[in-house]
Structure formats: C-alpha cells, structure tokens
Amino acid sequence: MDSHEWKEKIIDYIKRNRVSSTEVADCLGKTGAVPDVRPISEGHFRVGNVFWAYAYGESNWDVHERLQHVQEGDVALVEVFDCKDRAVFGDLVSKFLILYRQVSAIVVRGYLRDAHRLIKERWPIWCTGFNPVGCFNQKVDTPFDRDTFEDRLRRYHGAIGVCDDTGVVIIPKEHHTEEFFHKLEFIEQQEDIWYECIDRRKWTTFETVCLKKYADKA
Length: 218
What we know:
The chain is of the alpha/beta class. The chain is 41% helix and 22% strand.
C-alpha cells in the first residue's frame, strides 16, 4: 500500500478503536501535541485529515479564504499569528464548518469569541481560549511570511489529527506508514496487558510499567 492508503487505514483504526491522543503521542515518541489547546466541551473524540489555515496581522481574511476549500471529515486546524490575542472567529464560522462543511473538528491555536454559543451547541472545538474582541475582516497589505507558510504546510496540511479530552495530537505525513500502523496495534495490546496486570494480577505500576514483569511470564 502507498502512504495515502496507510493514512486511511490509520484513521480507520484510530476511529474504530478510539485510540486516545495519549496513546498516539506515545507512538510518536511522546511528541505530536498541538500546544496550548483544550476542548471547549467534554466527551468528543475526533480523528481525520488535517486542513491547515492561518490568520495574521489582526485579520481573519485569509482564514475565510482558505476555509472555503475544507472537505467533509477534515480536522480544520487554524493557527493565529500576530493578532494581539484577538479572537479569530466565533459562532458563524464554526457553524459553517461543522454543520455545512461537515468537518470532523475545529482546532484553533488562538482565541475564539461567542463562547456561550459554542459551549451551548457542544461542538467539537479545541482552542486556546476566548476573547470578545475579534479580528478585522480586511485583507492585510503585507504578505504572510513565506517560510512560515511553507513550514506549516509541510508540518500540518495533510497530516492526521487526533482530538479528545486530553488535547490534540498530529500524526505527520512521514508517519503514514505500515510501521506506524503496527505501533498503534502494539500500544493497544500493551494497554490491555498493563490493565490486566493491575486489575487481575494486582501488580504495582512499578512492576508493570517499569520492570515489565509480564515479559518474564511470556
């Protein structure tokens, strides 16, 4: 299988087995978390292709422009640059993305507004926080930094996003492989073994996690 086929298989496996962001981060060598984002409503579990967008210079013009092209099932990941903590968008854009474009989740490395509406609707949204003061709907004259744009496209666009109560983890494109798929299978099996050791054998976590006494019984 090629990388696209492995990507679809990884997404399906995570979705069917509800592999947590914690377990995925472990498979990535305890890396991959999107910094400073938290769910605004508890109990959501989402996984999908990452569609990356950005805002900069206190404007959300580019966010509106790029999000026209988001696809059903995508995790819409928006990063905010140089916006002085202004909210990048609120209820209107969230409703458009979730109800009409049917995205899997919205993840914003920045602030949102209309918190009361977003919380009431219990939409699958992760963000840094809230601010009633929003960005301007005007195009910025200065172009967005090209190096940052290309870096984020490589890092995020087309990656896999896993979102749950703990946070958001990104599986980079270079890990859309058979090897990573087997890491996911292994981590699930290992979790089952660890809980069996704690619950049934009544071992300590030191015996289970550090000493791995179950390996001696194999």
